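Dear support,

Our group has been running a series of protein-ligand predictions, and this particular one with cobalt (II) ion is the one our PI (initials K.S.) wants archived with full inputs and outputs. We had some confusion internally about which version of the output was final, so please treat the block below as the authoritative record. The input we submitted was:
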Amino acid sequence: MNVTSVTTQPIAGQRPGTSGLRKKVTVFQQPGYLENFVQAIFDSLDEFKGETLVLGGDGRFHNDAAIQTIVRMAAANGFGRVLVGQHGILSTPAASCVIRKHQAFGGIILSASHNPGGPDGDFGIKYNTGNGGPAPEKTTEAIYANTQTITRYLTTDAADVNLALQGKTMLAGMAVEVIDSVADHADLLATLFDFDRIGALLRSGTFRMCFDAMHAVTGPTAHEIFIKRLGAPAASVMNGVPLPDFGGGHPDPNPTYAEDLIKVMFSDDAPDFGAASDGDGDRNMIVGKHFIVTPSDSLAVLAANAQLVPGYASGLKGVARSMPTSAAVDRVAEKLGIQCFETPTGWKFFGNLLDAGEVTLCGEESAGTGSDHVREKDGVWAVLFWLNILAVRRESVEQILRGHWQRFGRNYYSRHDYEGVDSAAANGLMAHLRASLATLPGQTIGGAAIATADDFAYTDPVDGSASTAQGIRIGLTDGSRIVFRLSGTGTEGATLRVYLERFELDAAQHAVETQAALAPLIALADQLAGIRERTGRERPTVIT
Ligand code: VG1
Ligand code: CO
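Confirmed final output from the archive:
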Protein backbone atom coordinates (compact mmCIF):
# COMPACT_ATOMS: atom_id res chain seq x y z
CA MET A 1 0.00 0.00 0.00
CA ASN A 2 1.13 3.47 -0.87
CA VAL A 3 0.86 5.57 2.34
CA THR A 4 1.68 9.25 2.08
CA SER A 5 2.54 11.32 5.13
CA VAL A 6 1.47 14.88 4.40
CA THR A 7 3.09 17.65 6.44
CA THR A 8 0.56 19.91 8.13
CA GLN A 9 0.23 22.48 10.91
CA PRO A 10 -2.30 22.95 13.70
CA ILE A 11 -5.45 24.87 12.78
CA ALA A 12 -7.04 26.91 15.56
CA GLY A 13 -10.61 26.36 16.73
CA GLN A 14 -11.00 22.60 16.32
CA ARG A 15 -12.43 21.97 19.76
CA PRO A 16 -15.53 19.72 19.60
CA GLY A 17 -18.69 21.26 21.09
CA THR A 18 -21.85 19.65 22.47
CA SER A 19 -21.88 17.17 19.60
CA GLY A 20 -18.67 17.16 17.57
CA LEU A 21 -16.93 19.84 15.53
CA ARG A 22 -19.31 22.11 13.61
CA LYS A 23 -18.23 24.85 11.23
CA LYS A 24 -19.28 26.46 7.98
CA VAL A 25 -18.84 24.24 4.90
CA THR A 26 -16.34 26.78 3.58
CA VAL A 27 -14.21 26.23 6.68
CA PHE A 28 -14.26 22.47 6.19
CA GLN A 29 -13.32 22.97 2.53
CA GLN A 30 -10.01 24.61 3.46
CA PRO A 31 -7.05 22.39 2.57
CA GLY A 32 -6.13 20.17 5.50
CA TYR A 33 -9.01 21.24 7.75
CA LEU A 34 -10.94 17.95 7.68
CA GLU A 35 -7.73 15.92 7.34
CA ASN A 36 -6.21 17.47 10.48
CA PHE A 37 -9.28 16.71 12.54
CA VAL A 38 -9.63 13.14 11.27
CA GLN A 39 -5.95 12.44 11.95
CA ALA A 40 -6.39 13.93 15.43
CA ILE A 41 -9.24 11.45 16.00
CA PHE A 42 -7.16 8.49 14.83
CA ASP A 43 -4.16 9.63 16.89
CA SER A 44 -6.35 9.64 20.01
CA LEU A 45 -7.28 5.96 19.56
CA ASP A 46 -5.35 2.90 20.70
CA GLU A 47 -4.86 -0.35 18.84
CA PHE A 48 -7.32 -0.05 15.99
CA LYS A 49 -5.08 -1.70 13.38
CA GLY A 50 -7.13 -4.18 11.38
CA GLU A 51 -10.36 -3.11 13.12
CA THR A 52 -13.66 -1.91 11.62
CA LEU A 53 -14.67 1.75 11.31
CA VAL A 54 -18.26 2.78 10.54
CA LEU A 55 -18.66 5.83 8.35
CA GLY A 56 -21.68 7.81 7.23
CA GLY A 57 -23.33 11.18 7.33
CA ASP A 58 -26.62 13.00 7.01
CA GLY A 59 -26.14 13.61 3.28
CA ARG A 60 -25.68 17.36 3.52
CA PHE A 61 -23.54 19.29 1.03
CA HIS A 62 -19.86 18.18 1.17
CA ASN A 63 -20.81 14.78 2.69
CA ASP A 64 -19.63 12.76 -0.33
CA ALA A 65 -16.28 14.52 -0.73
CA ALA A 66 -15.55 14.20 2.99
CA ILE A 67 -16.40 10.48 2.99
CA GLN A 68 -13.84 9.80 0.24
CA THR A 69 -11.16 11.72 2.15
CA ILE A 70 -11.87 9.77 5.35
CA VAL A 71 -11.92 6.36 3.61
CA ARG A 72 -8.43 7.02 2.22
CA MET A 73 -7.15 8.19 5.61
CA ALA A 74 -8.69 5.16 7.37
CA ALA A 75 -6.82 2.86 4.98
CA ALA A 76 -3.55 4.74 5.40
CA ASN A 77 -3.90 4.66 9.19
CA GLY A 78 -4.37 0.90 9.21
CA PHE A 79 -8.07 0.15 9.70
CA GLY A 80 -8.92 -3.30 8.36
CA ARG A 81 -12.42 -2.52 7.19
CA VAL A 82 -14.73 0.44 6.71
CA LEU A 83 -18.52 -0.01 6.71
CA VAL A 84 -19.99 2.94 4.87
CA GLY A 85 -23.65 3.71 4.24
CA GLN A 86 -24.77 3.66 0.61
CA HIS A 87 -24.22 7.10 -0.98
CA GLY A 88 -22.26 7.90 2.19
CA ILE A 89 -25.46 8.16 4.20
CA LEU A 90 -26.24 6.93 7.70
CA SER A 91 -28.54 8.70 10.12
CA THR A 92 -26.98 9.24 13.53
CA PRO A 93 -29.05 6.49 15.23
CA ALA A 94 -28.44 4.14 12.29
CA ALA A 95 -24.67 4.71 12.61
CA SER A 96 -24.91 3.91 16.31
CA CYS A 97 -26.87 0.74 15.51
CA VAL A 98 -24.36 -0.37 12.84
CA ILE A 99 -21.37 0.19 15.16
CA ARG A 100 -22.97 -2.02 17.81
CA LYS A 101 -24.33 -4.71 15.51
CA HIS A 102 -21.06 -5.19 13.63
CA GLN A 103 -18.86 -4.77 16.70
CA ALA A 104 -16.93 -1.97 15.07
CA PHE A 105 -14.07 -0.22 16.83
CA GLY A 106 -15.92 3.07 16.41
CA GLY A 107 -17.48 5.33 13.84
CA ILE A 108 -17.27 8.75 12.26
CA ILE A 109 -20.52 10.60 11.69
CA LEU A 110 -20.63 13.59 9.36
CA SER A 111 -23.40 15.90 10.44
CA ALA A 112 -24.26 19.33 11.66
CA SER A 113 -27.62 17.92 12.72
CA HIS A 114 -30.30 20.62 12.83
CA ASN A 115 -28.08 23.36 11.38
CA PRO A 116 -28.81 24.48 7.78
CA GLY A 117 -26.82 22.88 4.92
CA GLY A 118 -25.64 23.78 1.42
CA PRO A 119 -22.48 25.52 0.17
CA ASP A 120 -23.06 28.40 2.61
CA GLY A 121 -24.43 26.20 5.36
CA ASP A 122 -22.84 24.14 8.11
CA PHE A 123 -20.89 20.91 8.20
CA GLY A 124 -19.83 18.74 11.11
CA ILE A 125 -17.96 15.66 12.20
CA LYS A 126 -17.92 13.58 15.35
CA TYR A 127 -16.42 10.35 16.60
CA ASN A 128 -18.46 7.60 18.27
CA THR A 129 -16.84 4.85 20.31
CA GLY A 130 -17.39 1.09 20.15
CA ASN A 131 -20.53 1.26 22.31
CA GLY A 132 -22.12 3.27 19.48
CA GLY A 133 -22.28 6.47 21.47
CA PRO A 134 -20.67 9.90 21.11
CA ALA A 135 -17.12 9.97 22.45
CA PRO A 136 -16.95 11.10 26.09
CA GLU A 137 -15.32 14.42 27.01
CA LYS A 138 -12.06 12.68 27.87
CA THR A 139 -11.77 11.57 24.23
CA THR A 140 -12.99 14.81 22.65
CA GLU A 141 -10.45 16.73 24.73
CA ALA A 142 -7.69 14.33 23.62
CA ILE A 143 -8.74 14.90 20.00
CA TYR A 144 -8.63 18.66 20.54
CA ALA A 145 -5.17 18.42 22.12
CA ASN A 146 -3.98 16.48 19.06
CA THR A 147 -5.31 19.18 16.71
CA GLN A 148 -3.03 21.65 18.49
CA THR A 149 0.17 19.66 18.03
CA ILE A 150 -0.43 17.88 14.71
CA THR A 151 2.48 17.82 12.24
CA ARG A 152 1.35 15.28 9.62
CA TYR A 153 -1.64 13.27 8.39
CA LEU A 154 -1.65 9.95 6.62
CA THR A 155 -3.46 9.25 3.36
CA THR A 156 -3.11 7.29 0.12
CA ASP A 157 -3.62 8.22 -3.50
CA ALA A 158 -6.25 5.49 -4.08
CA ALA A 159 -9.17 6.30 -6.36
CA ASP A 160 -12.65 7.20 -5.03
CA VAL A 161 -14.91 4.37 -3.84
CA ASN A 162 -18.17 3.90 -5.74
CA LEU A 163 -20.64 4.69 -2.95
CA ALA A 164 -23.68 4.12 -5.15
CA LEU A 165 -23.33 0.34 -5.18
CA GLN A 166 -23.71 -1.92 -2.16
CA GLY A 167 -20.97 -4.50 -1.83
CA LYS A 168 -17.36 -5.04 -0.90
CA THR A 169 -14.24 -3.68 -2.61
CA MET A 170 -10.62 -3.24 -1.54
CA LEU A 171 -8.95 0.13 -1.20
CA ALA A 172 -5.21 0.27 -0.53
CA GLY A 173 -5.35 -3.02 1.38
CA MET A 174 -8.49 -2.13 3.39
CA ALA A 175 -11.94 -3.67 2.82
CA VAL A 176 -14.66 -1.14 2.03
CA GLU A 177 -18.21 -2.41 2.45
CA VAL A 178 -20.98 -0.19 1.17
CA ILE A 179 -24.09 -1.18 3.17
CA ASP A 180 -27.80 -0.42 3.04
CA SER A 181 -28.26 2.85 4.97
CA VAL A 182 -31.54 1.85 6.60
CA ALA A 183 -31.83 -1.96 6.93
CA ASP A 184 -29.92 -2.69 10.16
CA HIS A 185 -31.65 0.17 11.99
CA ALA A 186 -35.12 -0.70 10.68
CA ASP A 187 -34.63 -4.36 11.65
CA LEU A 188 -33.68 -3.34 15.18
CA LEU A 189 -36.72 -1.06 15.54
CA ALA A 190 -38.96 -3.91 14.36
CA THR A 191 -37.85 -5.97 17.38
CA LEU A 192 -38.95 -3.25 19.85
CA PHE A 193 -42.42 -2.26 18.69
CA ASP A 194 -45.67 -4.04 17.88
CA PHE A 195 -45.57 -3.58 14.11
CA ASP A 196 -48.74 -5.66 13.62
CA ARG A 197 -50.77 -3.42 15.87
CA ILE A 198 -49.27 -0.16 14.57
CA GLY A 199 -49.75 -1.38 10.98
CA ALA A 200 -53.38 -2.21 11.68
CA LEU A 201 -53.93 1.30 13.03
CA LEU A 202 -52.24 2.96 10.05
CA ARG A 203 -54.21 0.86 7.55
CA SER A 204 -57.53 1.18 9.39
CA GLY A 205 -58.68 4.21 7.43
CA THR A 206 -59.73 5.85 10.71
CA PHE A 207 -56.29 7.18 11.64
CA ARG A 208 -53.96 9.34 9.60
CA MET A 209 -50.34 10.30 10.30
CA CYS A 210 -48.00 12.82 8.72
CA PHE A 211 -44.25 12.48 9.10
CA ASP A 212 -42.13 15.43 7.95
CA ALA A 213 -38.60 14.30 7.05
CA MET A 214 -37.67 17.95 6.35
CA HIS A 215 -35.74 16.86 3.21
CA ALA A 216 -33.19 15.34 5.56
CA VAL A 217 -31.81 11.90 6.30
CA THR A 218 -34.94 10.16 7.65
CA GLY A 219 -36.86 10.25 4.33
CA PRO A 220 -35.70 6.75 3.27
CA THR A 221 -36.11 5.35 6.83
CA ALA A 222 -39.65 6.71 6.99
CA HIS A 223 -40.52 5.20 3.60
CA GLU A 224 -39.10 1.84 4.58
CA ILE A 225 -40.81 1.69 7.97
CA PHE A 226 -44.06 3.64 7.79
CA ILE A 227 -44.99 2.93 4.19
CA LYS A 228 -43.29 -0.36 3.23
CA ARG A 229 -43.29 -2.29 6.49
CA LEU A 230 -46.35 -0.79 8.22
CA GLY A 231 -48.49 -0.12 5.16
CA ALA A 232 -49.33 3.55 5.77
CA PRO A 233 -50.56 5.47 2.70
CA ALA A 234 -47.75 7.12 0.70
CA ALA A 235 -49.04 10.57 1.64
CA SER A 236 -48.08 9.85 5.26
CA VAL A 237 -44.52 11.07 4.59
CA MET A 238 -43.82 14.64 3.48
CA ASN A 239 -40.54 16.25 2.37
CA GLY A 240 -39.23 12.67 2.16
CA VAL A 241 -36.54 13.19 -0.47
CA PRO A 242 -33.18 14.02 1.14
CA LEU A 243 -31.51 17.10 -0.38
CA PRO A 244 -27.94 18.34 0.22
CA ASP A 245 -29.31 21.72 1.34
CA PHE A 246 -32.50 20.35 2.94
CA GLY A 247 -34.47 22.31 0.34
CA GLY A 248 -33.11 25.55 1.78
CA GLY A 249 -34.80 24.86 5.12
CA HIS A 250 -33.57 24.64 8.65
CA PRO A 251 -33.91 20.92 9.50
CA ASP A 252 -34.76 21.50 13.15
CA PRO A 253 -38.06 19.89 14.17
CA ASN A 254 -39.60 22.65 16.25
CA PRO A 255 -42.79 24.63 15.75
CA THR A 256 -40.89 27.49 14.09
CA TYR A 257 -38.77 25.59 11.56
CA ALA A 258 -41.10 22.65 10.84
CA GLU A 259 -43.72 25.05 9.55
CA ASP A 260 -44.94 22.71 6.76
CA LEU A 261 -45.94 20.12 9.33
CA ILE A 262 -47.44 22.67 11.72
CA LYS A 263 -49.59 24.02 8.87
CA VAL A 264 -50.92 20.53 8.15
CA MET A 265 -51.48 19.65 11.81
CA PHE A 266 -53.35 22.90 12.50
CA SER A 267 -55.52 22.76 9.35
CA ASP A 268 -59.25 21.93 9.50
CA ASP A 269 -58.61 18.50 8.05
CA ALA A 270 -55.56 17.74 10.19
CA PRO A 271 -54.31 14.15 10.53
CA ASP A 272 -54.45 12.47 13.94
CA PHE A 273 -50.71 12.34 14.46
CA GLY A 274 -47.79 14.38 13.17
CA ALA A 275 -44.05 14.09 13.66
CA ALA A 276 -40.81 15.45 12.28
CA SER A 277 -37.14 14.64 12.56
CA ASP A 278 -33.97 16.68 12.09
CA GLY A 279 -31.01 16.77 9.68
CA ASP A 280 -29.35 13.60 10.99
CA GLY A 281 -32.46 11.80 12.24
CA ASP A 282 -31.83 11.80 15.96
CA ARG A 283 -34.43 14.37 17.02
CA ASN A 284 -38.21 14.17 16.99
CA MET A 285 -41.14 16.50 17.31
CA ILE A 286 -44.54 15.05 18.21
CA VAL A 287 -47.73 16.87 17.25
CA GLY A 288 -51.37 15.92 17.71
CA LYS A 289 -54.33 17.43 15.93
CA HIS A 290 -54.02 21.16 16.74
CA PHE A 291 -51.77 20.22 19.65
CA ILE A 292 -47.98 20.38 20.12
CA VAL A 293 -46.27 18.06 22.59
CA THR A 294 -43.21 19.58 24.25
CA PRO A 295 -40.19 17.25 24.19
CA SER A 296 -39.93 17.17 28.00
CA ASP A 297 -43.57 16.06 28.24
CA SER A 298 -43.02 13.52 25.48
CA LEU A 299 -40.23 11.86 27.47
CA ALA A 300 -42.49 11.68 30.51
CA VAL A 301 -45.36 10.17 28.49
CA LEU A 302 -43.04 7.52 26.99
CA ALA A 303 -41.79 6.59 30.45
CA ALA A 304 -45.31 6.42 31.89
CA ASN A 305 -46.56 4.22 29.03
CA ALA A 306 -43.49 2.08 28.40
CA GLN A 307 -45.18 -1.08 29.62
CA LEU A 308 -47.52 -0.90 26.58
CA VAL A 309 -44.58 -1.37 24.20
CA PRO A 310 -43.15 -4.89 23.72
CA GLY A 311 -39.49 -3.84 23.90
CA TYR A 312 -40.05 -2.17 27.28
CA ALA A 313 -42.89 -4.27 28.70
CA SER A 314 -40.75 -5.68 31.48
CA GLY A 315 -40.21 -2.20 32.92
CA LEU A 316 -37.61 0.53 32.91
CA LYS A 317 -34.33 0.22 34.83
CA GLY A 318 -34.21 3.96 35.29
CA VAL A 319 -34.47 7.17 33.28
CA ALA A 320 -32.16 10.10 32.61
CA ARG A 321 -32.69 13.63 31.38
CA SER A 322 -30.38 16.51 30.63
CA MET A 323 -30.32 19.24 33.27
CA PRO A 324 -32.37 21.86 31.36
CA THR A 325 -35.05 19.28 30.48
CA SER A 326 -38.18 19.70 32.59
CA ALA A 327 -38.75 17.55 35.64
CA ALA A 328 -41.91 16.00 34.15
CA VAL A 329 -40.12 12.66 33.79
CA ASP A 330 -38.86 12.88 37.39
CA ARG A 331 -42.47 12.67 38.55
CA VAL A 332 -43.09 9.57 36.49
CA ALA A 333 -39.89 7.97 37.79
CA GLU A 334 -40.98 8.67 41.34
CA LYS A 335 -44.36 6.96 40.76
CA LEU A 336 -42.65 4.01 39.07
CA GLY A 337 -40.14 3.78 41.90
CA ILE A 338 -37.13 3.99 39.57
CA GLN A 339 -34.12 6.29 39.58
CA CYS A 340 -33.96 9.50 37.54
CA PHE A 341 -30.54 10.92 36.63
CA GLU A 342 -29.82 14.55 35.70
CA THR A 343 -26.89 14.99 33.29
CA PRO A 344 -25.31 17.89 31.40
CA THR A 345 -26.60 18.75 27.92
CA GLY A 346 -25.46 16.39 25.15
CA TRP A 347 -26.07 12.71 24.51
CA LYS A 348 -22.48 11.74 25.37
CA PHE A 349 -23.39 12.06 29.06
CA PHE A 350 -25.99 9.26 28.84
CA GLY A 351 -23.54 6.67 27.48
CA ASN A 352 -22.11 5.42 30.77
CA LEU A 353 -25.53 5.18 32.42
CA LEU A 354 -26.87 3.17 29.48
CA ASP A 355 -23.79 0.91 29.33
CA ALA A 356 -23.96 0.27 33.07
CA GLY A 357 -27.63 -0.73 32.81
CA GLU A 358 -28.69 2.10 35.11
CA VAL A 359 -31.23 3.58 32.70
CA THR A 360 -33.45 2.45 29.83
CA LEU A 361 -34.88 5.76 28.54
CA CYS A 362 -33.13 9.12 28.12
CA GLY A 363 -34.23 12.46 26.82
CA GLU A 364 -33.44 16.11 26.26
CA GLU A 365 -35.69 19.15 26.01
CA SER A 366 -34.20 19.80 22.57
CA ALA A 367 -36.42 17.09 21.03
CA GLY A 368 -34.13 14.15 21.64
CA THR A 369 -35.40 10.89 23.07
CA GLY A 370 -33.87 7.45 22.97
CA SER A 371 -33.23 4.22 24.81
CA ASP A 372 -30.68 1.52 25.41
CA HIS A 373 -31.38 0.01 21.94
CA VAL A 374 -28.60 2.29 20.59
CA ARG A 375 -26.37 4.96 22.14
CA GLU A 376 -27.79 7.99 20.32
CA LYS A 377 -31.14 9.68 20.42
CA ASP A 378 -33.42 8.29 17.76
CA GLY A 379 -36.11 10.27 15.95
CA VAL A 380 -37.98 7.45 14.18
CA TRP A 381 -37.76 5.31 17.33
CA ALA A 382 -39.64 8.02 19.25
CA VAL A 383 -42.30 8.25 16.52
CA LEU A 384 -42.82 4.47 16.62
CA PHE A 385 -43.01 4.58 20.42
CA TRP A 386 -45.81 7.13 20.19
CA LEU A 387 -47.59 5.17 17.46
CA ASN A 388 -47.40 2.03 19.58
CA ILE A 389 -48.96 3.87 22.53
CA LEU A 390 -51.68 5.34 20.31
CA ALA A 391 -52.38 1.93 18.76
CA VAL A 392 -52.93 0.44 22.21
CA ARG A 393 -54.75 3.29 23.92
CA ARG A 394 -56.81 4.50 20.95
CA GLU A 395 -57.00 8.00 22.41
CA SER A 396 -55.93 11.25 20.78
CA VAL A 397 -52.51 12.76 21.46
CA GLU A 398 -54.20 15.62 23.31
CA GLN A 399 -56.26 13.24 25.47
CA ILE A 400 -53.13 11.34 26.40
CA LEU A 401 -51.35 14.54 27.42
CA ARG A 402 -54.28 15.94 29.39
CA GLY A 403 -54.67 12.63 31.19
CA HIS A 404 -50.95 12.59 31.94
CA TRP A 405 -51.06 16.10 33.46
CA GLN A 406 -54.07 15.16 35.53
CA ARG A 407 -52.19 12.22 36.98
CA PHE A 408 -48.75 13.75 37.43
CA GLY A 409 -49.30 17.51 37.33
CA ARG A 410 -48.09 19.77 34.52
CA ASN A 411 -44.59 21.16 34.13
CA TYR A 412 -45.15 24.30 32.09
CA TYR A 413 -41.99 24.60 30.05
CA SER A 414 -40.44 26.70 27.31
CA ARG A 415 -37.03 27.45 25.85
CA HIS A 416 -36.20 30.89 24.47
CA ASP A 417 -33.27 30.98 22.04
CA TYR A 418 -31.43 34.14 21.08
CA GLU A 419 -29.46 33.06 18.00
CA GLY A 420 -26.47 34.76 16.44
CA VAL A 421 -25.88 37.08 19.38
CA ASP A 422 -22.58 38.96 19.63
CA SER A 423 -20.18 36.54 21.41
CA ALA A 424 -18.71 39.15 23.74
CA ALA A 425 -22.20 40.25 24.81
CA ALA A 426 -23.28 36.66 25.45
CA ASN A 427 -20.15 35.86 27.44
CA GLY A 428 -20.61 39.09 29.40
CA LEU A 429 -24.16 38.10 30.26
CA MET A 430 -23.05 34.70 31.54
CA ALA A 431 -20.17 36.21 33.51
CA HIS A 432 -22.56 38.69 35.11
CA LEU A 433 -24.87 35.84 36.17
CA ARG A 434 -21.96 33.79 37.51
CA ALA A 435 -20.77 36.74 39.56
CA SER A 436 -24.21 37.15 41.14
CA LEU A 437 -24.72 33.49 42.12
CA ALA A 438 -23.49 33.85 45.68
CA THR A 439 -25.81 36.72 46.55
CA LEU A 440 -29.04 35.65 44.78
CA PRO A 441 -30.40 33.02 47.18
CA GLY A 442 -32.65 34.65 49.76
CA GLN A 443 -33.41 37.68 47.59
CA THR A 444 -36.90 38.55 46.38
CA ILE A 445 -36.86 40.11 42.93
CA GLY A 446 -40.04 41.35 41.27
CA GLY A 447 -42.09 39.27 43.71
CA ALA A 448 -40.10 36.09 43.08
CA ALA A 449 -38.30 34.55 46.04
CA ILE A 450 -35.01 32.98 44.95
CA ALA A 451 -34.07 29.84 46.81
CA THR A 452 -31.03 28.51 44.93
CA ALA A 453 -28.50 29.67 42.34
CA ASP A 454 -25.59 27.66 40.98
CA ASP A 455 -23.56 26.68 37.95
CA PHE A 456 -24.40 23.06 37.19
CA ALA A 457 -21.55 20.62 37.77
CA TYR A 458 -21.79 16.89 37.18
CA THR A 459 -19.85 13.90 38.36
CA ASP A 460 -20.51 10.80 36.29
CA PRO A 461 -21.79 8.16 38.71
CA VAL A 462 -20.20 5.37 36.68
CA ASP A 463 -16.63 6.54 36.03
CA GLY A 464 -16.38 9.56 38.32
CA SER A 465 -15.42 12.01 35.56
CA ALA A 466 -16.36 15.60 36.38
CA SER A 467 -17.82 18.35 34.18
CA THR A 468 -18.23 21.91 35.38
CA ALA A 469 -19.88 25.13 34.15
CA GLN A 470 -22.76 23.32 32.44
CA GLY A 471 -25.37 26.05 32.90
CA ILE A 472 -26.64 28.61 35.41
CA ARG A 473 -29.63 27.40 37.43
CA ILE A 474 -31.87 29.75 39.37
CA GLY A 475 -34.48 28.05 41.56
CA LEU A 476 -37.44 29.82 43.18
CA THR A 477 -39.06 28.87 46.47
CA ASP A 478 -42.20 27.65 44.61
CA GLY A 479 -40.10 25.13 42.65
CA SER A 480 -39.98 27.18 39.42
CA ARG A 481 -36.69 27.29 37.60
CA ILE A 482 -34.75 29.37 35.08
CA VAL A 483 -31.65 27.98 33.37
CA PHE A 484 -29.21 29.96 31.24
CA ARG A 485 -26.57 28.42 28.99
CA LEU A 486 -24.75 29.12 25.75
CA SER A 487 -25.16 26.69 22.86
CA GLY A 488 -22.26 24.46 21.92
CA THR A 489 -23.50 23.61 18.43
CA GLY A 490 -23.84 26.97 16.67
CA THR A 491 -21.38 28.31 14.11
CA GLU A 492 -22.21 32.01 14.10
CA GLY A 493 -21.70 34.26 17.10
CA ALA A 494 -23.31 32.87 20.24
CA THR A 495 -26.73 31.40 20.92
CA LEU A 496 -28.16 32.11 24.35
CA ARG A 497 -30.65 29.53 25.58
CA VAL A 498 -33.03 30.44 28.40
CA TYR A 499 -35.03 27.53 29.82
CA LEU A 500 -38.15 28.28 31.86
CA GLU A 501 -40.14 25.86 33.98
CA ARG A 502 -43.04 26.07 36.41
CA PHE A 503 -44.93 23.17 37.99
CA GLU A 504 -48.72 23.21 38.32
CA LEU A 505 -50.47 20.41 40.16
CA ASP A 506 -54.01 21.85 39.95
CA ALA A 507 -55.74 20.36 36.88
CA ALA A 508 -58.09 23.38 36.75
CA GLN A 509 -54.99 25.44 35.82
CA HIS A 510 -53.72 23.16 33.04
CA ALA A 511 -55.33 24.94 30.09
CA VAL A 512 -53.34 28.18 30.36
CA GLU A 513 -51.29 29.08 27.29
CA THR A 514 -47.64 28.20 28.00
CA GLN A 515 -46.07 31.64 27.45
CA ALA A 516 -48.78 33.22 29.60
CA ALA A 517 -48.23 30.65 32.33
CA LEU A 518 -44.51 31.46 32.28
CA ALA A 519 -44.80 35.25 31.86
CA PRO A 520 -43.56 36.16 35.36
CA LEU A 521 -40.53 33.88 34.92
CA ILE A 522 -39.79 35.34 31.48
CA ALA A 523 -39.77 38.83 33.00
CA LEU A 524 -37.56 37.65 35.86
CA ALA A 525 -35.06 36.07 33.45
CA ASP A 526 -34.63 39.42 31.72
CA GLN A 527 -34.29 41.21 35.02
CA LEU A 528 -31.64 38.81 36.30
CA ALA A 529 -29.56 38.57 33.13
CA GLY A 530 -30.24 41.86 31.38
CA ILE A 531 -31.02 39.95 28.18
CA ARG A 532 -32.56 42.81 26.21
CA GLU A 533 -29.99 45.33 27.27
CA ARG A 534 -26.95 43.11 26.74
CA THR A 535 -27.99 41.38 23.51
CA GLY A 536 -29.91 44.26 21.97
CA ARG A 537 -32.72 41.81 21.22
CA GLU A 538 -36.32 42.62 22.04
CA ARG A 539 -37.46 39.01 21.73
CA PRO A 540 -36.09 35.50 21.22
CA THR A 541 -35.30 34.20 17.72
CA VAL A 542 -37.02 30.89 18.42
CA ILE A 543 -39.45 29.84 21.14
CA THR A 544 -39.99 26.16 21.71
C1 VG1 B 1 -28.12 21.25 21.26
C2 VG1 B 1 -29.16 20.79 22.25
C3 VG1 B 1 -28.68 19.53 22.96
C4 VG1 B 1 -28.33 18.47 21.91
C5 VG1 B 1 -27.34 19.02 20.93
C6 VG1 B 1 -27.05 18.06 19.80
O1 VG1 B 1 -26.94 21.60 21.95
O2 VG1 B 1 -29.47 21.78 23.17
O3 VG1 B 1 -29.69 19.08 23.82
O4 VG1 B 1 -27.79 17.33 22.53
O5 VG1 B 1 -27.83 20.23 20.34
O6 VG1 B 1 -28.22 17.70 19.14
P1 VG1 B 1 -26.56 23.12 22.30
O7 VG1 B 1 -25.21 23.04 22.92
O8 VG1 B 1 -26.63 23.88 21.01
O9 VG1 B 1 -27.62 23.59 23.25
V1 VG1 B 1 -28.15 17.29 17.51
O10 VG1 B 1 -29.64 16.82 17.05
O11 VG1 B 1 -27.27 18.47 16.98
O12 VG1 B 1 -27.02 16.01 17.40
CO1 CO C 1 -29.53 15.87 15.32
